[in-house]
Amino acid sequence: VTGALCVLASIGSGALDVQTVTAGFDAGKVGDTYGYVQGLAIGSISDGTFNPIGGASIIALYWFDAGTDELYFILNGTHSNAGWTNLVVGGNTYTRASATFATSGSDTTWSWVTATNPFPVNGNTYVVTFT
Amino acid sequence: MITKITSLDDIDFDGLFAGSLPRMDAGTFIWPEGISTEAEKKAYMRGRLEKILAQSNNLSYLHTVDGEQVAAIFGVKNGNMYAAGLSLVRPDSNGSRAFIYRQDVLDAQKAFFTGHGIEGMSGIVPKDSPLKPGLEARHTPEDRPLVVPISGEVYERKFIRVVGD
What we know:
The complex is a heterodimer.
Chain A: H1 3-12, E1 17-22, E2 24-26, E3 32-37, E4 44-46, E5 49-50, E6 56-65, E7 70-76, E8 86-89, E9 92-95, E10 100-103, E11 107-113, E12 125-130
Chain B: E1 2-5, H1 13-28, H2 38-53, E2 60-65, E3 68-78, E4 81-89, H3 103-115, E5 120-126, H4 131-138, E6 148-150, E7 159-164
Parallel strand pairs in B: 4-5
Antiparallel strand pairs in B: 1-2, 2-3, 3-4, 5-7, 6-7
């Protein structure tokens, strides 16, 4: 099941939120970025509104390939470490409990060290489900 | 002269890599752990470059100056921004890299960017990178509006983003 059908199936399964990331690619000296980063014009996301935390705007959902490979999920604004349990993409599950959590004055970040790139193909769409 | 690179076969990769390696080893590039021999570095660099070249938004290019391949820039286009990832720059036959300041070279690069709808450049470097102070010092809006640090971006905690025109 792919694309819109997958989104519908995920919603039907009781997911808290489902996002579709059209992966972009950005080349960097230190490493490359795969996925979606608002403001750098890397990829895109639909709808980009994170329902479990009050409709916060998702400003980044990307994997960074730089030796210590990391997956980042970043919301606009400062939020508490609560409201959802799992991020699922490409058959892999990333738990909020195992994430490194950080907030700054302007954003909230969950990150995981993972060698698996969940957004490997530039231009492809990936369904990201939050439970 | 500038030409687009779509494959490493388009360039003298061996020569450009060999000419760039001393500078990279001097600190302009941080090799990942476990990459130590020249052969390992070459294979690593080849892999990184081929990954960029394989992207649909690849916009890598080669500088040929006075008939010599002197610089290969590997990057991608995102929107109207150019993200330069890696580069191989070797001295010319005079042993100099001063060609990067030549007006005809700069003009050629500008024309290449303009022709591809590029209006600015971006780069992502680690917040604590030794490159950061140099980038900020060399590329201020008042000095040479090529690279302008932006604060408050997504990457601020771990990275800085630099953009400019």
